[in-house]
Amino acid sequence: xxxxxxxxxxxxxxxxxxxxxxxxxxxxxxxxxxxxxxxxxxxxxxxxxxxxxxxxxxxxxxxxxxxxxxxxxxxxxxxxxxxxxxxxxxxxxxxxxxxxxxxxxxxxxxxxxxxxxxxxxxxxxxxxxxxxxxxxxxxxxxxxxxxxxxxxxxxxxxxxxxxxxxxxxxxxxxxxxxxxxxxxxxxxxxxxxxxxxxxxxxxxxxxxxxxxxxxxxxxxxxxxxxxxxxxxxxxxxxxxxxxxxxxxxxxxxxxxxxxxxxxxxxxxxxxxxxxxxxxxxxxxxxxxxxxxxxxxxxxxxxxxxxxxxxx
Length: 311
Ligand SMILES: Nc1ncnc2c1ncn2[C@@H]1O[C@H](COP(=O)(O)OP(=O)(O)OP(=O)(O)O)[C@@H](O)[C@H]1O
Ligand SMILES: [Mg+2]
Hints:
Layout: E1 13-22, E2 25-35, E3 40-44, H1 51-58, E4 66-71, E5 74-75, H2 80-85, E6 87-90, H3 102-112, H4 117-130, H5 146-157, E7 164-168, H6 176-191, E8 195-199, H7 203-209, E9 212-217, E10 220-225, H8 227-234, E11 238-243, H9 246-253, E12 260-264, E13 267-272, H10 275-283, E14 289-294, H11 297-305
Parallel strand pairs: 3-8, 3-9, 6-7, 7-8
Antiparallel strand pairs: 1-2, 1-4, 4-5, 9-10, 11-13, 11-14, 12-13
Helix pairs in contact: 3-4, 8-11
Bound molecules: adenosine-5'-triphosphate and magnesium ion.
Magnesium ion binds near residues 51, 52, 92 and 168.
């Protein structure tokens, strides 16, 4: 995907030394961030890395402990009311009233943002089509599936025609059809000039959607760049996923030149730029099963953040 064009415009979000402390816990630790206008920017990181906390500070929902933060060039928290009018939010957990219908839920948001009545009805009709929920307009939320609820959250985030759309794990728990539909819609929004800021644990999603991303771990940015560049810089081109006894795999591949071997239980990940010698060795061990694939963003993520479980 193309890099975000450098239009010389001021960044939509700019953070300097942004820090958040919950008691003893440093959730966000001196983060510097410049999110350019008009692209899709990703925040990646293990559970508990601090992604949602950063988003909540941008939205003025969580007080900043230290550092500075501007959105649209305006200071947080000083100008938060003005900022919030121009942001749409798809939260990580949705706790909308289950007795409201789809259309009532959208009307509540339109009123909250003072969208004039006729304009609101026009926009709501358009948004219901956009997320393919027009035929469920009068269904109460409790009757919607998870995928429908998420599509409604996206429609709701767009009611105020925002310049910046913040999406906290927009496709977690959704089936492949809904995920693809949401990707298509997010690309449409990006083409329409909106800035997207999203978090995701799906590396394929980040690879497809994000023009640029940062990897966060323990509240700190540990890497940033375009997905393709990060893959090229951080990991070897080929991955062989080998299944089998640790000692046997070590014996076979351990001293293969240019090979990096990572072992997680019975799975062994062999990273290399030179495929042929590894394949030759694997042919000598027909009892091992393996799969060859190109390196991807998940490999970058695991290389940067390690294989240990977090929370
Ligand atoms: N309100 C709170 N009070 C105390 N600690 C909090 C609070 N909110 C978050 N934390 C802690 O701050 C850290 C960052 O949490 P955060 O929710 O930002 O992580 P995340 O990157 O969004 O994780 P996930 O991928 O699981 O959603 C975690 O250690 C979490 O336990
Ligand atoms: Mg989160």
